[in-house]
Design a protein that fits this description.
The chain is an all-beta fold. 0% of the residues lie in helices and 53% in strands.
C-alpha cells in the first residue's frame, strides 16, 4: 500500500487548506484512513480518521468543528479540509492506514500557519 499526501502550504491564521491523500490500495473502500500530524519537537498526534467505506469519522478534540475528513473511493483519495487554521496547527501532516497488521504512512506534507 502506498500513500501520498499533498496540498500543504503556508497560510495565515483563519485561512483554509485542503490536504489530499492518494492511495494505491485496492479496493480502496476497504481501508480506513487516518490523518496524523507532527510539530517540531513534538510527538506525532492523531488528527482524525475516516472509516472504510466512509461510514464514519472521528476527530481529535483540538480540531473538532474545524477539520473535516471525507473520501472519494472512486478516486482512491481521502481529503482533510482544514478551516479556521491556527498557528498551533503548524506541523507535517501524514496520512496512514493499516492492512494485515502492518502500518502504512504517506510521506507527509508541511502545513505552516502564520499569525
Amino acid at each position: 500500500v502506498q500513500l501520498q499526501a499533498s496540498g500543504g502550504g503556508l497560510v495565515q491564521a483563519g485561512d483554509s487548506l485542503r490536504l489530499s491523500c492518494a492511495a494505491s490500495a485496492r479496493p480502496f473502500s476497504a481501508y480506513g484512513v487516518g490523518w496524523f500530524r507532527q510539530a517540531p519537537g513534538k510527538e506525532r498526534e492523531f488528527v482524525g480518521a475516516v472509516a472504510r467505506g466512509g461510514s464514519g469519522t472521528l476527530y481529535a478534540d483540538s480540531v473538532k468543528g474545524r477539520f473535516t475528513i471525507s473520501r472519494d473511493n472512486a478516486k482512491n483519495t481521502v481529503y482533510l479540509q482544514m478551516n479556521s487554521l491556527r498557528p498551533e496547527d503548524t506541523a507535517v501532516y501524514y496520512c496512514h492506514t493499516t492492512r494485515g497488521g502492518n502500518d502504512f504512512w504517506g510521506q507527509g506534507t508541511q502545513v505552516t500557519v502564520s499569525s
